[in-house]
Write a structure and sequence with these properties.
This protein has about 290 residues and is α/β, with parallel strands linked by helices. It contains twelve helices and nine strands. The protein has helices at about 15-20, 50-55, 65-75, 95-105, 120-125, 135-150, 160-190, 195-200, 210-220, 230-250, 255-270, 275-280; strands spanning about 5, 25-30, 45, 55-60, 85-90, 110-115, 115, 130-135, 150-155. It is globular and about 65 Å long. The structure holds nicotinamide-adenine-dinucleotide. Nicotinamide-adenine-dinucleotide (NAD) binds next to helix 3, strand 7 and helix 5.
């Protein structure tokens, strides 16, 4: 079993690193915030270079593509580096994935672009979808590590960037479902319906989606708002989606509306749990009165 270096022990990374330990990997982890969320059974490295000297395969779970690129550079440049492959599970965008692949190739490090979807709850249940892309050699070399992350894995292509494109299309739909369900349920409540009735009926009807099925009953109706994914990261995902659609020259009418809504929410309440988009919508979704 390869020794795994893990960078980024946040909401998602701390669970994924724990899954790797549970699958029998030796895990050496690093986070700029320190070892506070280090899973039991893993060891902490004080720097990215120190981790890269001990690990065969490095896994990243970082906020964005700029940070993934910076950490990939530190891995590649580490004196006495052992790591020969790197997997980025962050949502970093197709361009960042291609840049990271090129940067690492110059140092003989293989790269697999492997963003994830299914939330912290999915990561804990090992049902998280891992959508990965990379050349045959790199994918084969990291397979035991991908298997340690989750039981649900999809190879979506043979070059970096395709995993990210897949993930952005998915998260645009997830962001749209949250925004549209919030608007529909806010309307129903103002008309005199109650939330539990609404989600029960919608989930037995054609309007059902992941927001009405999972997030409303678990995070919103209970008032806990603890899905473990921030509105700032969702705004980043939709922004990356819009940029990627522009690069591809495709249509983005719905994309423009959804990107603007998540940008307003993230600006008004930075780093709030993304399920708080429901009360934000009830308060008028940050639009100034006409
Ligand atoms: P988070 O903000 O909770 O965690 C990010 C972690 O990275 C933090 O612990 C931070 O200290 C660390 N970090 C930042 N810069 C660093 C650096 N230079 N070196 C080392 N560590 C650094 O974010 P998250 O929710 O865990 O998400 C991580 C990635 O996974 C993001 O790209 C996100 O879009 C993606 N993602 C998250 C979820 C989710 O449900 N949370 C789901 C799918 C995808």
């Amino acid at each position: 079993m390869p020794t795994v270096g893990f960078v980024g022990l946040g909401n998602m990374g701390s669970v994924l690193a724990g899954n790797l330990v549970a699958a029998g990997h030796a895990v050496v982890a690093h986070d700029v915030a320190g070892p506070g969320r280090l899973p039991d059974g893993a060891s902490f490295a004080g720097s990215v270079a120190d981790m890269a000297r001990q690990a065969d395969v490095v896994v990243l779970s970082l906020p964005d593509g700029t940070i993934s690129q910076q950490v990939a550079k530190e891995v590649a440049a580490a004196d006495g580096r052992r790591a020969a492959h790197l997997i980025d599970t962050s949502t970093s965008g197709p361009q960042a994935a291609r840049d990271i692949e090129a940067l690492l190739a110059g140092h003989g490090v293989g790269f697999v672009d492997a963003p994830v979807s299914g939330g912290v709850a999915g990561a804990k249940a090992r049902t998280l979808a891992v959508m990965y892309a990379g050349p045959d050699e790199a994918c084969a070399a990291v397979e035991p590590v991908l298997a340690g992350l989750s039981d649900k894995r999809f190879r979506v292509g043979d070059r970096a960037g395709l995993g990210q494109a897949m993930k952005l299309a998915n998260n645009f739909l997830s962001a749209t479902a949250m925004a549209a369900a919030s608007e529909a349920i806010a309307f129903g409540l103002s008309a005199g319906l109650d939330m539990t009735t609404m989600t029960e009926v919608i989930n037995a009807s054609s309007g059902m989606n992941t927001a009405t099925r999972d997030k409303f009953p678990r995070d919103i109706a209970t008032g806990t708002y603890a899905a473990g994914f921030s509105n700032s990261l969702m705004a980043k995902d939709v922004r990356l989606y819009r940029a990627a659609v522009d690069d591809a020259g495709g249509p983005a009418e719905v994309g423009d509306v959804i990107a603007a809504l998540w940008a307003r929410f993230a600006e008004a309440e930075p780093n709030a749990d993304f399920t708080r988009v429901f009360p934000f919508t009830q308060r008028g979704a940050g639009r100034s009165p006409e």
